[in-house]
Amino acid sequence: MLRLLNVQGKQIEPYVDALGALRITVFRDYPYLYDGSLEYERDYLKVYTEGERSLAVLAFHGDAVVGATTCMPMADEGPEFQAPFLQAGHDISQICYLGESILLPQYRGRGIGRQFFKHRENHALSLGLNQAAFCAVDRPPDHPSRPDNYRPLDEFWKARGYQKQPHLQALFRWKEVNEVEESAKTLTFWTKELK
């Protein structure tokens, strides 16, 4: 049985290393192929520990963090997340940015992903935000690292009420497992009106 724990702002600090290690493990797989380090993760996650309006939902199996999801107001996020929305004329003060939603493979298929979305959307509504947005990396169907059994999450996201917004894209850089150095990747945003 998995246990979920909501932590906000500075309450996230004791879990930063566990969250960072989980991100490194899960995002190493396709489609992100992320070759990360705990040092980078600690720096990346500061925006959540320093933000008073941020939320992390942690999934525990016993004492081990086996899944996590995060969110925060888009207005508190970095400019690289805000830019596509500002350029398209959106009011970022009304948007909640949904960060990662990650779960170790052996715990998938138990409804935790749906609960992660519910917790984040409820948090957004509690802050008075009326839209949620997240982004996902774009990969071609014939990508050489795509596993034969890979199933994109598009249908799962659509079932949660999210719509892909091809005009809202951002470039992010990270080092892939087979790369010598970082390269730019395109990520496309998905959005949903919250009620």
TrEMBL record:
Q: Which UniProt keywords apply?
A: Transferase
Q: Does the keyword Transferase apply?
A: yes
Q: Does the keyword Secreted apply?
A: no
A Pfam entry, by short name: Acetyltransf_1
Per the database record, which ranges form the N-acetyltransferase domain? 17-188
- Gene3D superfamilies given in the database record: 3.40.630.30
**Recorded GO MF terms:** acyltransferase activity, transferring groups other than amino-acyl groups
UniProt cross-references to CDD domains, sorted A to Z:
NAT_SF
Q: Which domain of life is it from?
A: Bacteria
What name does this protein carry? GNAT superfamily N-acetyltransferase
The organism of origin for this protein? Prosthecobacter dejongeii
